[in-house]
Amino acid sequence: MPYSVAAFYRFLPLEDLESLRAGLLAFCRERALRGTILIAPEGVNGTVAGEPAAMTAFLAELSRRFALTEEHLRISSASDWPFARMKVRIRPEIITLRDEAGDPTEKTGVHVAPKDWNALIADPGVVLLDTRNRYETKVGIFEGAIDPGIDQFTDFKRYVEEQLDPQKQQKIAMFCTGGIRCEKASAFMLEKGFAEVYQLKGGILSYLEQVPEADSRWQGDCYVFDGRVALGHGLAETDWTACFGCGAPLSAEDRASPEFEEGVSCPVCAGEKSEAEKAALRERHRQMTAGEG
């Protein structure tokens, strides 16, 4: 039986975070759920997996605690556990931007449904902007999109301020994995004076789920932050894996590289690891393969 996976977020004021954390963690552990939930004064963000019956109870609990609806959820499946354990963490922000200008409770861009996205980005006057990190864009991206080449979301602010001009690029269409980064990114860009800002409702995951592959303008797969590594059209699992040494997503071509060593290194990190580090990783991989670790 495949596991059900729920990715969710909602911006809403939360209080007594320690009590909330303890309650959520106990609820999830009692039902053998696995994943990560982040809570902050501004809201909740998480991805959790489990058996279907347990997940039904969990979704009801999310609705009770946070008034989450289908609008705030992306549901997919996994053939194996995509997480090793259950974690609930308190953070200053549920998605880290570190800028008060990015406040989605004040304003956000226009939410565009997946079915209307192709028509929007076909407009030659639209600047199509990816808000994700470079290791994610390696796995897949929309045709014609700008990759900002950032290593973390907090770098998005600098990219906008240094590379974009609200007087020249007035119509922006942005996207991210599930929609949450665009909430803050669009609020930030509106505050900086960009006239029209649009965002893909539900993110790439909703687009891949709802838009037929024959009509799709998505190229590649979509990186996800769990053991599945990437999902394709219809939210199907793919053959992407992750490097045990550095966590970088690896395609079949990457794994065929002479710089790839299972459990040790890949083309991204092979030249950065010392022989001592590689030896330690080889021993760890041997222990795991032998069932010792």
Automatic annotation (TrEMBL):
Family membership: Belongs to the TrhO family.
Start and end residues of each Rhodanese domain: 122-216
Cross-referenced InterPro entries: Rhodanese-like_dom, Rhodanese-like_dom_sf, TrhO, TRHO_N
EC numbers on record: 1.14.-.-
HAMAP family: TrhO
Keyword Oxidoreductase in annotation: yes
Protein's name in the database: tRNA uridine(34) hydroxylase
Gene source species: Jiella mangrovi
Catalytic activity: uridine(34) in tRNA + AH2 + O2 = 5-hydroxyuridine(34) in tRNA + A + H2O
Signal sequence bounds: none
Transmembrane regions listed in the UniProt entry: none
Function: Catalyzes oxygen-dependent 5-hydroxyuridine (ho5U) modification at position 34 in tRNAs.
Classification via Pfam families: Rhodanese, UPF0176_N
Gene name as annotated: trhO
Organism superkingdom: Bacteria
Gene3D superfamilies membership: 3.30.70.100, Rhodanese-like domain
PANTHER family to which the protein is assigned, alphabetical: RHODANESE-LIKE DOMAIN-CONTAINING PROTEIN 7-RELATED, THIOSULFATE SULFURTRANSFERASE/RHODANESE-LIKE DOMAIN-CONTAINING PROTEIN 2
Keywords: Oxidoreductase, tRNA processing
